[in-house]
């Protein structure tokens, strides 16, 4: 239905589904819709997620920590299929009352601790293992870029991505509005990465790990169909250099596979319970 001439009512009410592809899952209230316990594996960390950009942030960090020798970072990654409403099960809502992936239960101490919101999970794990935080004198810079991403990604995903790829029909105004903002953010990144190898300086940190699944995947042509062409991503040469460098890291390749339900079968590892799963349990082997 065209939005031309639409006039908002004095009081908004929820009368019909809206939101295109995800319409059946959108609702103006929180809380669980069904009783469903979450599975628990044998490792210290229990991750409940999906390989969206926010989900990839956490699995990439886990794989980076393990590759760096932090054996205590072993984790079980359980698939939460948001297209089926798994995020509204009672067990998931207990871990994340906002019903968004990723959600983490840290069982490494005497009492389980829940951590939700991807940025909080990255900080929790990086501080827990004392890695990927950058040098102390650049901590404020790292935190600034991490929080920049947390505030900026909704414009890319919930704004540009939604109206460009998922809305019921294309609408010029919101696409123009969010394309402009996405390109401005890419320009912010490009200018920063012209100055330094990584966002916080010369060290690869959780600021880069958080930003890569959103803007790295975008400039590499992996987001929202032909969005890279539409946004002239080739113009951002420093972002592309940075994205290609991160993309070449083996832990990043592995992290992008975990909880994936799209792409080639050999790149999809629906659940991850050990490093061996990358060799034996991808969808080309079990699907």
Structure, described:
The chain has 287 residues and is an alpha+beta fold. Helix content is 45%, strand content 6%. A four-stranded mixed sheet has the order 2-1-3-4, covered by helices on one side. The mean pLDDT is 95.
Provide a concise account of the structure shown.
By secondary structure, the protein is an alpha+beta fold. It has helices at residues 53-67, 90-95, 118-129, 139-166, 172-193, 206-219, 227-230, 237-247, 250-257, 277-280, 283-286; strands at residues 45-49, 75-79, 103-106, 113-116. Strands 2-1-3-4 form a four-stranded mixed beta sheet, covered by helices on one side.
How many structural domains are formed by the residues? 2
Tell me, rounded to a whole number, the average pLDDT.
Answer: 95
**Biggest sheet, strands in spatial order?**
2-1-3-4
Determine the number of helices (DSSP H or I, runs of at least 4 residues): 11
- Classify the secondary structure makeup into a structural class: alpha+beta
Between the first and last Cα atoms, what is the distance in angstroms? 39 Å
Shape: globular
Count of beta strands: 4
Q: Helix content range of the residues, please?
A: 40-55%
At the first level of CATH, what is the class of the largest domain? Alpha Beta
Main pleated sheet? 4 strands, mixed
Order of helices and strands: EHEHEEHHHHHHHHH
For this structure, the quaternary state is single chain
Q: Radius of gyration, Cα only, in angstroms?
A: 19 Å
CATH homologous superfamily title of the largest domain? Glutaredoxin
The CATH architecture of the largest domain comes to 3-Layer(aba) Sandwich
- CATH topology tier name of the largest domain: Glutaredoxin
Strand portion = 5-15%
Runs with pLDDT <50, length 5+? Answer: none
């Amino acid at each position: 239905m065209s939005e031309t001439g639409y006039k908002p009512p004095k009081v908004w009410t929820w009368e019909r589904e809206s939101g295109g592809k995800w319409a059946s899952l959108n609702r103006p209230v929180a809380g669980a819709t069904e009783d469903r316990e979450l599975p628990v594996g044998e490792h210290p960390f229990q991750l409940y997620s999906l390989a969206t950009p926010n989900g990839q942030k956490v699995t990439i960090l886990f794989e980076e920590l393990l590759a760096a020798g932090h054996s205590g970072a072993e984790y079980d990654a359980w698939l939460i299929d948001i297209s089926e409403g798994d995020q509204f099960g009672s067990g998931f809502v207990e871990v994340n009352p906002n019903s968004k992936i990723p959600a983490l239960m840290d069982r490494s101490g005497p009492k389980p601790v829940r951590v939700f919101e991807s940025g909080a999970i990255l900080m929790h794990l990086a501080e827990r293992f004392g890695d990927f935080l950058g040098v102390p004198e650049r901590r404020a810079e790292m935190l600034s870029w991490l929080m920049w991403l947390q505030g900026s990604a909704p414009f890319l995903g919930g704004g540009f991505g939604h109206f460009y790829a998922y809305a019921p029909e294309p609408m010029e105004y919101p696409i123009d509005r969010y394309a402009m903002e996405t390109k401005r953010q890419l320009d912010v990144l490009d200018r920063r990465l012209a100055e330094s190898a990584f966002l916080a300086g010369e060290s690869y940190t959780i600021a880069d790990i958080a930003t890569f699944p959103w803007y790295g995947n975008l400039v590499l042509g992996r987001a929202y169909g032909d969005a890279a062409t539409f946004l002239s991503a080739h113009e951002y040469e420093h972002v592309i250099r940075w994205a290609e460098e991160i993309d070449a890291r083996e832990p990043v390749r592995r992290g992008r596979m975990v909880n994936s339900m799209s792409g080639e079968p050999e790149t999809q590892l629906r659940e991850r319970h050990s490093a061996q799963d990358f060799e034996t349990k991808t969808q080309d082997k079990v699907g």
